[in-house]
Amino acid sequence: MLDGVVPFPPEYAARYRQRGYWEDRSIANVFAEVCARYADRVAVGDGERAVTYAQLDARATNLALNLLDLGLRPLDRVVVLLPNTAEFVYLYFALQKIGCVPIMALLSHRYLEVSQFVKLSGAVACITPDRAKDFDFIALIQRLQAESDTLRFGIILGEARPGFFSLRDLTDRPAVRPVSDLAGIAIDPTDPALFLLSGGTTGIPKLIPRTHNDYVFNSKMAVSVCDVHPDDALLLVLPIGHNLPLACPGLQGFLLRGARVVLSTSARAEDVFPLIQRHRITHIHVVPSLLIRWVNDPRIGQYDLGSLRVIQSGGQRLQPEVRLHTERVLKCFVQENFGMAEGLLMFVRLDDPLDVRRETVGRPICPDDEVRIVDDDDRDVAPGEVGELLARGPYTLRGYYGAPAHNARAFTADGFYRTGDLMRRHPSGSYVVEGRKKDLINRGGEKISAEEIENLILSYPAVQNVACIPIPHPILGEQMCACVIPQPGASPRLEELVAFLAGEGLARFKLPERLEVMNDFPLSPFGKVSKKDLVAIVTTRIEEQKARG
Ligand code: AMP
Q: Is 419's C-beta closer than 6 angstroms to any atom of ligand 1?
């Protein structure tokens, strides 16, 4: 097994096998069979392209052989930042076929994030577009290669150029190696098949190893509670690098059913509505902020969106008014789910009573998901009381990759993952989200670690001390506000701070959107900055500002 991965204890592994959850097959093996079974059906739609299951498998196989030829080997780590295109899907399955481990990064990540992923994982390759809007990925990879001992390959979506291979070329150019070379690759299904990124509560991001066994099971269970049939079509507008669109049920789950997956690089209403109409889309994964934009868009009435049956909302609390409004406007089921890249998934079931659909985020998808709600001393709270959610189960990680000190805090001694989410058990047995203990900002479903940004802002010369907090936003749910105590005589300004952070190479979605300058911070009885009090102070300031107009 890959060094740095925390294995499931043998007695749990035995139980998960005995109950049929773990099949001891690689992702590549499972999907090769799926592609053979549904060969002539359309698997993936991308722009004008319709790719059948047989074509998907053939292209992934060809790409896998070419990647093998380049020198990629089983368990090599590969950082992937790509848009939602068919090439991403070919690449994902190609890497699976040679047992490489993709690190599912986001197109919005920049130098600070990607350099950490390379360092943490010891990645040998980075696969990106050549450019995206105003950003030059070629320069990024060159900088990373200059700084890294492991990063040997730069692969780009566009044309090949000196020092870089072209992903399209590697996919299309007929491989010289025989297909039988793939049969010789031994993949241990208890090894990680991919690394997802943690929503982040620490200064440095954490990598989440998802094994072949647990990730196939994850998608099988997720698709079983989402009313998916072979003639259905899923629209993927959320980045496929995220757990939800990739596997909950997402791309993997829909392919397991022989259904269609339509990819979109845009989440704008004017692009999404025509796609739903044209492809007769039945399911979409959303975060609430997207749904709010779509259902309030005046163009919604101009399209026939009647094919939609299920909108799956997760990543952030869905306001009840948004659910009701959507169900009224689109006449479809808004299925809330509560999940995390670390594993545990809860879904509202389609036949749940009205109160469960309206008030809860559903219940776990597997009977062997073990869930506890505990107080600060790890004691179970009384039924219906609020506490922290702890989770353990057949598809929930046992430890972050290569992070033993952090794991000692993030897991109980008996292997429950401390989610940092505050929950309450509803009388129905489903769960209600009541808040969180963890120090992050949930900006439209993207998580920002307060500590990560605070560490960066502390290196900004005009700032003596900083605390980052969430402030409410009507669409995104939350935005980040940086509260700062300036250095004597300095007067930090938001635009200058943002320019500094962007210049350091921080992803744009993590830049503070408000700056509050203060003389001191409120302290808790233990002498730590009280973020709760800070939120209250800033909220009052915002309200006073609004009142003044
Ligand atoms: P990620 O791993 O980035 O998907 O983030 C997981 C976290 O998102 C969870 O631990 C929750 O804090 C939050 N989350 C996910 N789904 C929901 C939901 N339906 N309602 C409220 N918070 C959610």
A: yes
Q: Is 433 in the pocket of ligand 1 (CB under 6 A)?
A: yes
Using only C-alpha atoms, the chain has a radius of gyration, in whole angstroms, of: 23
Residues 240, 181: one domain?
A: no
Whether residues 113 and 247 share a domain: the answer is: no
- Round to whole Å and give the CA distance between 41 and 39: 6
Token code pair at residue 273: 């509505």
The reported pTM is: 0.97
How many domains in the chain?
3
In ligand 1, the atom with minimum distance to the C-alpha of 342 is 2
Structural contact between residues 439 and 453, judged by C-beta atoms closer than 8 angstroms: no
- Length of the chain, please? 549
**For residue 23, which of 207, 182, 221 has the smallest C-alpha distance?**
221
Q: What is the pLDDT of residues 74-107, one digit of tens each?
A: 999 999 999 999 999 999 999 999 999 999 999 9
State in Å: Cα 469 to ligand 1 middle.
17
328-358: pLDDT as tens digits: 999 999 999 999 999 999 999 999 999 999 9
Indicate whether residue 245 lines ligand 1 (CB < 6 A): no
Range of the domain at 61: 26-188
**Whether the CB of 210 sits within 6 Å of ligand 1:** no
CA of 376 to the centre of ligand 1 (A): 21
CATH value at residue 406: 3.40.50.12780
Are 403 and 316 in a shared domain? Answer: yes
- Asked if the structure places residue 218 within a domain, the reply is no
Q: Which residues of the chain have pLDDT under 50?
A: none
